[in-house]
Amino acid sequence: MSLLNWRVFSVALLLAFAVVMPSVTTAQGQTMSEIQLTGTASGGSKTGGTLAGGTTNGFGDTGGEFTPAPASTAGPEAAAFDGTYIWVATQFSDSVTRIRVSDGAVSGTFSVGKRPVALLYAASSLWVANLLSNNVMKLSPSTGAIQATYAVGDGPGGLAYDGTNVWVANRHSNTVTKLRASTGANLGSFAVGKRPMGLAFAANSVWVANNFSNTVTRLSTAGAVLGTYAVGRGPFGVTGQGENVWVTNYFGKSVTKLRAADGFNLGTFQVGDGAAGIIFDGNSLWVVNNGDSTVMRVSTTGSVITTYTTGKGPFAVTYDGNRIWVPNFGSNSVSMANVN
Fold first, then answer.
1. I want to staple 234 with a disulfide (CB 3.0 to 4.6 A). Which of 176, 250, 287, 311 is the partner?
2. Angle formed at CA 315 by CA 112 and CA 188, multiple of 5 degrees
3. What's the rounded Cα separation, in Å, for the pair 74 and 98?
């Protein structure tokens, strides 16, 4: 099935309510530097291999039997900053790569579990969610050595930190798991919506983007459901911004702004095709558009300020205090730009 046909099919499945308000782009086509990772990659879309019977899975993880992805496709999927290095998860090579921010030099690649798709720097360690290993690994940032491995739910693919605990979104279990960061002790798994993807800790709560439910679930730090809020089609990423929480809607080509105090919808704003990763840098929001191969700087009122061209098919973005970094799933590279 082609990517276009798959996306049409997926839109039919992802029924939601998304009222998109127009935004204003004040600058476009800004350039970014690109750092090539080892090996090559093919394609600019996140197919994640082929399901048994020949059905392409747009995110590589709806379940079923997988045929191997092409060996040439590394698939840089996620990124995190530890204060010195940018870490990039390349899911089809089952590894993470470390890039020194001071000069952009690649300074090591380290094996992890099967299909690493999410990264988090927390409690002085790098945390890696391995989608097909059903576990989370804790790595030493200085050496890349695996310090511990913790079993979680089925299909871990999102990570967040509440200051004490690491939270893991289990895409196939429709749950999130709470791990004590200091010991890795499993403190419970909690039901959320269908196919939880992005996680964020904001307003003393854990916010979960439910990709197949078109909702966001708000959990207390004890795991109790505090609310479930409708957003756009295919919610993917989530981030906190002061008194608000922002959610990307992959199939809605939009971002939704929720008031953190009560989940009230403050508006949905148009961005690019395949809105995926999102972060807040203290002043602006950064939204990755997988289908357009761009990253947008968005004001806290929802207006697009600047659009940067990335490599092919990005899904994530991180920030080092001066630059944004975007791993390019289809280019096997990382794009970087100074933003201050």
1. 250
2. 55
3. 15
Distance CA 268, CA 302 (A): 8
Radius of gyration of the chain from its Cα atoms, rounded to whole angstroms:
18
Q: What is the DSSP string of 226-251?
A: EEEEE-SSSEEEEEEETTEEEEEETT
Task: Write down the pLDDT at residue 292.
Answer: 96
Question: How many residues are there in the chain?
Answer: 340
Angle at CA 99, nearest 5°, toward 276 and 147? Answer: 90
Q: What is the pTM of this model?
A: 0.85
Three-state secondary-structure class, residue 301: coil
Say what the pLDDT of residue 29 is: 64
- Nearest to residue 324, comparing CAs of 309, 312, 313? 309
Q: What is the pLDDT of residues 22-44, one digit of tens each?
A: 333 344 568 899 999 974 333 33
Answer whether residue 12 shows pLDDT above 80: no
In which residue are the tokens 């970094």 written?
325
Residue 225's Cβ-count burial label (10 Å; 0-12, 13-18, 19+) is: middle
The position carrying tokens 């479930």 is 228
Q: List residues bridging with 100 in a β-sheet.
A: 85
> Averaged over 190-215, what is the pLDDT?
98
Q: Which tokens in the block code for residue 157?
A: 């693919």
Burial 63-72 (b: 16+ CB within 10 A, else e): eeebeebeee
The C-alpha atoms of residue 286 and residue 298 are separated, in whole angstroms, by 6
Q: Which amino acid is at 40?
A: T
Res. 124: pLDDT tops 60: yes
Q: Environment class of residue 4 by beta-carbon count within 10 Å: exposed (0-12), middle (13-18) or buried (19+)? A: exposed
Give the model confidence (pLDDT) of 246-287 as tens digits: 999 999 999 999 999 999 999 999 999 999 999 999 999 999
- Tokens representing 240? 């906190």
Amino acid 73: pLDDT? 63
